[in-house]
Amino acid sequence: MIGSNIVGNDVVELAAQYMAEHARLELWIGSHEPPLGFRQQFERGRASSEALLVAYEAWAAFETAYQASGKKVDQVRDEREKLKAALRRATDALVRARIE
Length: 100
Fold this sequence. Notes:
By secondary structure, the protein is mainly α. The protein is built from 3 helices and no strands.
């Protein structure tokens, strides 16, 4: 998404926030004191995978709609907004994984 020229800077910013939260979660897991047990690591990893799936599915839907529209960005506004919402949800899920 970040390297794509079919989304605006607002989507790129949300994707970058998602990536930053993913990195924060990985760092948190690796440096947690006391170390997280296997089950706790699994639960955090599952939350991370689920967040990635949410973002990926929204990206795939956006990209499919974009191609179907004849590459007309103005015709995929709904999918773009859904992509932004999905990135926000995915980022929030990563934040929650560190808090819970």
